[in-house]
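Q: Structure tokens for this one, please.
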Amino acid sequence: MQSNYRQKGSPAYLFGIVLVAVIGGLLFGYDTAVISGAERGLQAFFQSAADFTYTDGWHGFTTSSALIGCIIGAFLSGVVASRLGRKKSLFMAGILFFLSALGSYYPEFLFFEKGVACKSLLVAFNLYRVLGGIGVGMASALCPMYIAEVSPANKRGTLVSWNQFAIIFGQLVVYFVNFLIIRSHASDPDVVAWTNAIGWRVMFVSEAVPAAAFALLILLVPETPRFLALNGQDDKALTVLSNVNGEAKAREILAQIKATSIEKREKLFSYGFIVVFVGCMLSVFQQIIGINAVLYFAPRIFESMGVSNNMLFTVIMGVINISFTLVAVFTVEKLGRKPLLISGSIGMAIGALGVALSNVVTLPALVPVLSIMVYSASFMFSWGPICWVYMSELFPNTIRSQATAIAVAFQWIFNFIVSSTFVPMYNMKLGTMGDSFGHFFAYALYGVICVIAAIFVWRLVPETKGKTLEDMTTLWRERQGKKA
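A: Here is the predicted structure, written as tokens:
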């Protein structure tokens, strides 16, 4: 069997190791979206504290605290991936997910009385969420990097897009889990009290199961051939490449890797400022177009639109999101990266401006609901998966880990900014417009940014469809005006 792998390569082998890696994406989505169902119960629990007042400001920080960890994890990912490798770093991320799930469920562990809210317990809870955020930040950079470094060039875009599918699937799973947890006690006459005391805890601890599975399964996959080659382990690199591509093609790829990595690492700006700038701005635009404000606060947004069963509509939006992510998965290698990003930006602008318009003009309630669905769906076949494809293939081998870490850190920084500013902006009042002004302003702003994002992609972002990771060295050297 192993000999056959080395002669022809095995799609099943590639599928298996990519499948394990995308579980990290599922955990990424699960961890970031679990707060959408738990935040109401969490708010009520800490509002019962006697030693401090749990304000909206505290709640905004608590719902976003994991993002602080995401920023830290993204920065750490470059150093950890370079020194320990992609595989060991992903194992660390899995352990952090697991510990965070347990700690968020029972933050009173050892030091506090269970069920008694206080300021110190809030600090402990947020520390556990930050711990999980570090895992998310690491996984967000490392999962696409791992997939890209084991994938053939003609399949890389599709396989990395599956990571985004896993992220959205993880969000959909947790929407269902949260919905079912609440529904399981719907007949309880005091279901609200149960949710405030226990329900939110169950939502957080549910993540422990996939987290444990990921940490164990990642031990079974190989290290990436590019990391192995950069660290002088050519025989091991050739084995992995042969199992994926066949031995003849593997030797050709290994020679390309060695030719573009004479030095183990180069300085960050060895290929000019523009490559890092483009990567960072892709990350920034992915966030400032406002999608995570919708994902994190979906139940509240639907409620403000007059939707009675907001959790059900949140689940429906999750189904639509995952369906449109599949559009990217099956078209990214045919249509290319840039056309999907540009068309998605235009679709998001239409959806966002539709929501904004419905707040200044009297329209049927169906209009803003459909507009928010268009906005979200357009993101899911464009900026959602394609940004991660670019993060995995945009940078030359010798600066990939450090450049990806910085770009992904920018992503989480602006995720935090957008998430923490959305509620105050959404609730702004102005004269006779009242709350409608904030609703209009937020989505009008996101719509305008979507248009700017489309122009940025059109003018500055290179198409990477069909290029090997080693080709990126040539591309950026040529843009820099040097000989490849």
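A few notes: Residues 158 and 331 are 8 Å apart (CA to CA). DSSP finds 21 helices and no strands in the chain.
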